[in-house]
Amino acid sequence: MPRAWKSLIVGLVGVALLSSAQYAGAEPLGLSADPGHAHGDDGSGGASQYKPSISTVTLITGDRVRVTTQPDGTRSVIPMPGAGRAANPVSIRYRGDAIDVVPADAGAFVRAGRLDPRLFDVAGLVAAGYDDASSPELPLLARHTPGRTALEGVPAGATVGRTTGGDSSTALGLGKKDAASFWKWLVGSQQPKPAGSRSTGDALAAGIQQVSLRPLASTHHAGGGAMPMSSGATSARKAAPPAANATTANLLIKLIDRNGRLITKVDEAFFTEPVVLNRDTEDVYPLEPRPAGLGVALPPGSYSFGEIIVTTQRLQPTSYTLLARPNFTVSGNLTLTLDARQAHEIRATAQAPDPTPIVTTFGVIELFAGRPWTTLVTLPGATPFRAFALQTAAVTDRPYNFAMFQSSNSSWGVYDLLVGESGAVPANPTYHLRNADLGRISSRYNAAGTGLGLKGTLFREAQLPGDVQVGLGWFYPTGIPSTRVRFTSSAYGGAPLPWFASVDVGRDPAVPIYSEVRAPAVIPIGVTTLGLWNPATFRPEGHGVRRDDLSMNVTLQPFASGDVGTTFFILDEAGVTGSAVLERRGEPAARANDPNFLRTEPQPAATTSYSLDLLARRNVSWSRYATSIHAYWKFTCHRPPTGHDGHPMRLLNIGINGDYDLYGRAPAGRPFRLDLTVAEVEGTGTPQSATVAVSFDEGKTWRNVPTVRDATRKWHVIINHPNTPGKFVALRAKTQTDHGDVYSMTTIRAYGIGPAATVGAPGWSHRLRSDRSRAAGALPSPPARGFSDVVSPVRESHRETVRGDAR
To answer: Region labeled Disordered — which residues (predicted)?
Structure first.
């Protein structure tokens, strides 16, 4: 497990996912967001101190789910369908600390008791150590017909273990890479063919009666039996049947689908088990078939109900209808009727001339006792469908949101829309959005060299306002290198709508080599936000915290991009070496044989001068740049204020940016401008000087370059590059404040030199930035062709991605 990945992932709901002797006692790396530095893309301005928790879970179906937890507690899940499953709908239900992500073809097996519901609680799987970063296998227990000691025909990738429990249960180790083939074998002909059909859940392969999650021997959990799959006392829980002498009432819910059929069988209409929730106790009561609908006996109280029913017969395409009654009181026998024929179609239309659906997620999100409860369904792929919602009364006693996230591709760019209303499902859920109503992002996904064979995946997640603690989003395969235009919602329900974005890059999308993360930010309307991913110049960056116990944690990015504030994680550290040394008044205070992280013992409480020295090298196949770096910081560290555990240390950093092409190259034989941005830190003083030196021979000889400070107090330099395409440029830079704080850096191969005829598409960034002065919502002229000159160095195989949103 790479060290940097350990520093990125933090346990959901307060549970640390990973631990090692190296990090014993250390807090997870990455600090609080720095609100003083905003930058683009994908709308997600942010800072390298920003700390989300990101994990990926592979389900027994072979689908993967990305789970993100923001520092403020907002959580979002993005299902990533496995091969051949791109059109399979997915139910998503947040229930307290648990998050159930159930593909449509698995729901009937869960309801029938054939599959352990814990197999689909992704938050619980992460907390238990079954995420992909922690375990390559999913440990299963198959209960089968007594006397069968082996599972006939089990496919490769599933290891059959010991049979126990009177020869009726067999341990299985399911390799996650082979989960899809195992699922196909397990359910056999039960797999659905049409998008809206579902399996019956009646039978599994090889006489298997049930498949459940088997606790790992190394997993510590309370009790000797079933492992708890979520933490926190506020999780909604299934209620025990009412006692015989308890006062109960009979609730009957008549659900009528869009064909006018009364739903009396759970498998007829639902992906997951329909329940009603007691708003006072947070107990849930599963609905059971009744001759006149679905019902349950329950104690009197205040309740809520919300489900999305599926209608397939005589309706083409398949339709999905949200039927909700957020508030109702049970004081005696009660019948509720919810008629899908009275629901109205949910529509979000953009100004694009030729939109093609990518994904739609819709439903309701509400809070009980400060924890979320949702009724959501995700409909991926371009398969046509219709979504409906029945109007509800206003909810005023708690956060309640009706929302639809819709992403589509067009020749004008990708449209990521989040529409809906806070407090109720409206009578007419139709939304017509002009480009003038949306923010616009022009993004560049750079490659750190040429011919690297890399693939990228962009993740975008809108974070609903109103403290509902839920985000909605999707993933987008992204060419590396490529460019992309996106139009995106900037507000929801009258409140600003922040978007979180990250990019994973590797040769296999399921096994990323590095990842970039941006803090959530609102995309402003009327301007074009310029988003740069993995841009040169590559340089070292550092941040740290002083703990209340007076120890220090320093997070280092030895190979950060040119933008100060971009959080860059190397997930595969093969070929990366380095060390960091901290000195206090010239005496060694701590050392780490790791260029990413340094932790100290408690330091003197008095204000003290420190220096930090970082050396790092890399020899990797996925980058041609930053083969060697050196950084030096001189700073003063103070005792943290009382009650401010994790007080930021005062480390300067310099961002260095230029008008590079998509491979991080400047044009040969031309003057080239570099802009220097000193990230000012409170308490370090005012930057007084900045110096730059350049080398064209891998650091053997250096020449100083005059720096110029403009009226905005920023520095820049003009470098005259030799006419040597294919070579590299090394940089040295240093800044010092009037308090004596210092930052200096050296990067060998900070960026490259490319042919003057193809590099730079001169002025591309200036053209994009000029869009800021256009009238609000003005379209590119034309958007699909406006980048053709920008991407001249891109291989022809990337053209489709550049011109649109390649799937």
So the answer is: 218-241, 771-807
